[in-house]
């Protein structure tokens, strides 16, 4: 499983055998059961995760309703940016919406690797740029797209989610109630 993370890094920048060995030695892979909460609103994030298998959902609690704003699946980073980088309380939750195998990292491990291998800091920066670009794309979708367009984009870009995630969470992510999502799906089905 660790090969998935190493392959991900290699696509960003080739690594030496020594760098690979150091990453493997510091790597911590943990299995989390469905329903495990990795981060609660109000907690300060001290860990980052790389999804090897499974799915992690990010959501906000708004007037008692869960508002999903992201799903993280294989080969995606789960980072509570503000909380982790600024040591501020999180304003959202992270939970495993299915059994998940995650690489778990923290600042101390990262800083130790950066001191030994400065190139890894560049790799980390490139990872953060990719994560930021993904987040920016999601945010712009909520400003410019209709719920139906968001649904279609999700269906096209991440069809695997529809087999893994309950429809009410997909509806929340798209920004509608489950009944509205059913209407959107019926309307799209009739168009085919």
Care to describe what's here?
This protein has 192 residues and is of the alpha+beta class. It has a domain at 2-116: Jelly Rolls. The protein is built from nine helices and eight strands. It has helices at residues 2-12, 17-26, 81-86, 107-116, 119-144, 147-157, 161-164, 167-174, 178-191; strands at residues 28-32, 37-39, 48-53, 56-62, 65-72, 77-78, 93-96, 100-105. It has a four-stranded antiparallel β-sheet with strand order 1-8-3-6. Strands 2-7-4-5 form a four-stranded antiparallel β-sheet. The longest helix is centred in the C-terminal third of the chain and has 26 residues, at 119-144. The protein is globular, with a radius of gyration of 18 Å.
Quick recap of the structure?
By secondary structure, this protein is α+β, with helices and mostly antiparallel strands.
